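Work Package 3 (structural annotation) set out to generate three-dimensional models for the target panel prioritized at the project kickoff. During this period the team completed the workflow that converts sequence records into discrete structure tokens, so that structures can be stored uniformly alongside our sequence database. As a representative example, we reproduce one entry of 156 residues exactly as it appears in the project archive.
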Amino acid sequence: MNKQMKHTLYEATASIVGKGIIAGATGIAGMLLSQQIGKRVFGKTPNRAPAEVAGKLLGLKPTNEASKARFNKVIEIAYGSVWGIFRAWLGSKGTRGPAASALHLASIGASISTIIPALGWVPPPRKWSKEKLSIEIVHHTVYVLVTGWAYDMLND
């Protein structure tokens, strides 16, 4: 691989990662807003599973509610940013709009349904209540739509 090809590859990779992180963080902001609306309208607290899984993986255990809430937000931002990179990768391959959003949501759903429960840290969605499942689908749909919108705005 010559020097010009390497430079182009590095540029493309940096673009995907950078745009993905920005789009994903924007999507998480939308998801956090959706969770706050859910909390006020329905009295539902945000899902703490991301922080629980990350805490077990990293060997960290927040000691009070305030630190649990902060840790959860940090993990959600990281989670959203990583999934944003996946969305940017889809866009780099020419998949945009509703098709990219559908693939993005399906990929997140597959992860939530298989990989995370396989670690034994949280139950699979089939064991969740219909209400919890519905709420998570709404919040993740908001995330995917806002992330897709943000990614498209970065490319226009």
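The mean pLDDT is 89.
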